[in-house]
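job 3f2a | input accepted
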Amino acid sequence: MNRIIARLGVVVCVALAAFAVGPAQAEFPEKPVTIVVPWQAGSSPDVAMRTLASLASDDLGQPIVVQNIVGGSGSVGTLAVKNAAADGYTLLNNWVAPHVVARLFNPEIGYNDDDFAPLFGLIALPFTLAVRADHPATDVPSFVAWANAQDRPVNVGICAALSVPRMVMEEFLRASGVENYKPVPFNGCMPDNVKALLDGSLDATTGVLIAEKIFGDAIRTLAVLTDDRVSFADHLPTAKEQGVDIGWGKTSQGWAGLVAPAGTPEAALEKLRAVLGKHVQTPAFLDKMTAQFIPIEYSGPDEFRALWTRSAELLEPAVQRLLKEKKE
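job 3f2a | predicted structure (328 res):
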């Protein structure tokens, strides 16, 4: 009898020990990871995320799925990720337009910086000042002189009416001393605004680097509206080196990165940063992005978060000006 009781005691102790320890914690990730792109399929953001997903899936140990959730100038997809489970399995390709500008235009939009945990920044899309190839201006100083000599408003394409490229272009025009201009909105910075440049409807336009590839010698890019030249288009001078400093730094670019919902476990964030962050800096990824004219500038989570705050501070006055004009 004593032996039976002793054996039962051993069994109970083993069972209690197993219960106390619990099952082994599985390593993240255990299932596919989804990256939400708030823009349409085939867009530059979509191409970048699908390229990253294809390169990093094996290393991560699970498939990476790209899902397009469009609408509200990117805010619909942003809200979807904000409301997703904070478990590391749903990420967002966040952009300055929905992340910062949409909130400035509509403080009740439903999300803010604290709703997201940064993984890293990876895209810095510069805007350009472009004219038709036969325009008399050949650089920024000659363009400013030409614009100020006109007896009419200069027609300048600004991409969308309430957009980052418009704010960047108008800040450039103000900094350069060009005041007599008429902003002409389009649905984006390609291709309709460039076509309007070519048919004479526009005198100049806010552009993007890929316009040179598509339209070739038909257009002339006078400046890149950034502090530094772009590595794969280093023949193009910046506005700053031609005497016009906007003073916005990286805020003058269409920046983007990857974020997760706030509260995502740090272990999951670190795994995602280690794997995905490694692949966005590899030649395999960078070469594909160069071919698509998508500039890559990696920044760590702290630097990327600081860019959110800095961008909001710099863009808010421009947003207020646009809101005032809209009311008038």
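job 3f2a | Residues 301-327 form the longest helix (27 residues).
job 3f2a | closed
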